[in-house]
Design goal:
The complex is a heterodimer of chains A (365) and B (223). Chain A has two domains: 172 residues, no CATH class; 144 residues, Rossmann fold. Chain A is built from twelve helices and 17 strands. With 365 residues, chain A is α/β, with parallel strands linked by helices. In chain A, a hairpin with a 2-residue loop joins strand 1 and strand 2. Chain B has 223 residues and is an alpha/beta fold. A seven-stranded mixed β-sheet of chain B has the order 1-3-2-4-7-6-5, sandwiched between helices.
Chain lengths: 365, 223
């Protein structure tokens, strides 16, 4: 399902302005280093904090994770300036998402000191019923409003905020469970073990994970066990004649287990994935592509993925085509902070390759 | 003086390194040929005539008169290119007249969603400029073939024969003995592409210009 149809971003990280339109079920961002692919993912993740700041798969606040994830240091309170374009905090970060043809406008004013820091411009429906002044924004979950000029915050009666939330939910409620899967998540099994494992087990989705591992990685995989080791607990992969600690598995297998496990516990939402091709042999890319296609259909997930791997794009394109799932590639470029996207259909990618042009170098055209 | 940056885009493994190491930062134009041999002929012409064609890529559409493939290549480039100034196509007339050939190409492009406003000849019904709505770049199409030779198909090899005639290597009486230019070339010592390239390199410059004048007109758009 297509939850987000388009996204517009202003004044966020290295992005002065960006507009990505015509998103579909599975969307891939290609482009040189530093053009803003990951920043676009982060912007959507940031907006999701309006609905829910708790990161389902990490157990920390999303607001802090956005700051922490790139270099493993800092949090919102100490390093939030890094998220403003050129660290110029005189302007607000603006992120607009179009969903069901309705455009919702979020801002992050530097002056707003609470967490999560994202405010939402009220929809007409809400303005009509509750007359508010201009320059008034809804604080997270519609619990109140923030008046921009005076920096005054007022909370609503719970009945009002429930009503407001229900209105916003119609358009962007899917953001509540938005996942951001990045290389840091895929590398650290502790996230899987602490925040995902019990959810998988309660629905016996661990069997599904093992089935995939058996098909694509370890042919004699029999199960996953969470067991003590030394002074801690960790996951083990049970094979026919031994058991291997998840720490001892190859990076590709471990990443695949983490990725699939995360996808299995959410539904009806957007999943943002950064560089899923890391550590993956082409067969591993096949596995990931199939997993994404299956989850897109079964769990009603929309994917927005950044990658540098043309192999992954080709494999994913093929799988989506075979499964009848919408697929689109966006070539991202940036000049003086302005991000532009060119849409590449599968036929364009094949054509460019047949002409001898690697689509990752589309900026020469 | 001589071209320094016409880049052969295929095989991709070679041009990949040009892209990676920054030798190619921008392509101003792309020349599409039907086959690998045609690419080599065009490159030989450029070298012989000392044409400067900076930041131009040349490639083939995998041979055969693969019009759907050619049309798709152009349609994709029209849709996704932002910095190209010219897309050029060098294509055989085959069994069609030149006007039918260009009409067929335009129809193929339109069927792939390319919004063509107009097209007109810019040289002797043999080179055409195709105007696309909303696009700054031009599509230039040069059609190979010499009808007067009476061959069953009109193709690039006809122009090689013209060069041979101009160089007095071949007599005009030979033409009526063959139904195809390729056969004539093969039987007269020009079976391989290397032979043809050597011919171009060793011929008089103005003979090469006359024999491949339509390609010259096309290449001028890149200078």
């Amino acid at each position: 399902m297509v939850f987000i149809e388009s996204v517009e971003i202003t004044w966020f990280r290295g992005i002065k302005e960006a507009s990505i339109n015509d998103l579909t079920d599975v969307n891939v961002f290609l482009g040189s280093n530093g053009v803003g692919k990951s920043s676009i993912l982060e912007a959507i993740y940031l907006v999701s904090t309006w609905f829910n700041d708790k990161d389902l798969i990490r157990g920390i606040g999303k607001t802090d994770y956005i700051v922490y994830r790139r270099t493993g240091r800092g949090d919102w309170g100490r390093l939030k300036d890094l998220l403003w374009y050129n660290m110029d905090t005189s302007k607000d970060i603006e992120i607009k998402l179009t969903s069901r043809k309705e455009k919702l406008e979020y801002i992050v004013p530097y002056s707003y000191e609470s967490k999560p820091p994202v405010l939402l411009k009220p929809l007409k429906e809400i303005l009509v019923k509750y007359k508010v002044f201009s320059n008034t924004y809804l604080i997270p979950q519609g619990k109140g409003f923030y008046e921009y000029k005076s920096k005054y915050t007022k909370t609503f009666d719970p009945k009002i905020s429930i009503w407001i939330s229900s209105i916003i939910d119609k358009y962007n409620g899917f953001l509540r469970n938005t996942l951001f899967i990045d290389p840091l998540f895929l590398r650290k099994p502790v996230y899987l073990e602490r925040f995902i494992w019990s959810k998988l087990l309660s629905r016996r989705l661990d069997k599904r994970v093992v089935g995939f591992i058996r098909e694509y990685y370890e042919g004699d995989a029999e199960g996953l066990t969470y067991a003590p080791f030394g002074d801690t607990y960790m996951l083990f992969l049970n094979l026919s004649d031994t058991t291997v600690a998840i720490d001892s598995l190859g990076d590709g297998v471990r990443s695949a287990i983490a990725l699939l496990s995360a996808l299995l516990i959410v539904r009806d939402t957007v999943v943002l994935i950064e560089d899923p091709e890391i550590h993956q042999h082409p067969r591993g890319l096949g596995f990931i592509s199939k997993a994404l296609a299956e989850m897109s259909r079964e769990n009603n997930l929309q994917f927005i993925i950044s990658t540098q791997s043309l192999e992954f794009v080709r494999v994913l394109s093929r799988v989506c085509s075979e499964e009848g799932i919408g697929f689109r590639v966006f070539f991202i470029e940036k000049s003086n902070g302005v991000v532009e996207a060119r849409v590449l259909e599968s036929v364009d990618i094949d054509t460019l390759r047949s002409l001898g042009i690697d689509p990752r170098f589309l900026d020469v055209l | 003086m001589v071209l320094d940056t016409i880049v052969q885009l295929k095989p991709m493994e070679n041009s990949f390194y040009d892209f990676v190491f920054g030798k190619l930062k921008r392509l101003r134009g792309i020349i599409l040929c039907e086959g690998v041999s045609d690419v080599e002929v065009v490159k030989a012409i450029i070298r012989k005539l000392g044409l400067s064609v900076r930041d131009i890529g040349i490639t083939d559409c995998s041979g055969v008169t693969n019009e759907p493939k050619v049309a798709q290549a152009i349609a994709s480039l029209v849709g996704i290119a932002r910095k190209l100034e010219t897309i050029a196509l060098i294509i055989d007339a085959n069994k069609s007249s030149f006007s039918s050939r260009i009409e067929s190409i335009v129809d193929s492009l339109r069927s792939r969603g390319v919004n063509i406003v107009s097209y007109h000849t810019i040289y002797n019904e043999r080179v055409y400029k195709v105007v696309v709505s909303g696009k700054k770049f031009a599509i230039i199409v040069a059609i190979n073939g010499i009808v007067d030779y009476g061959f069953s198909k009109y193709e690039l090899e006809d122009h090689v024969i013209k060069l041979l005639l101009l160089e007095n290597v071949l007599g005009a009486n030979k033409l009526s003995m063959y139904t195809s230019a390729k056969e004539l070339l093969r039987d007269n010592g020009y079976a391989s592409i290397n032979d043809i390239i050597e011919l171009i390199e060793n011929s008089m410059r103005d003979h090469v210009e006359k024999a491949f004048n339509h390609i010259m007109v096309l290449l001028k758009h890149f200078q």
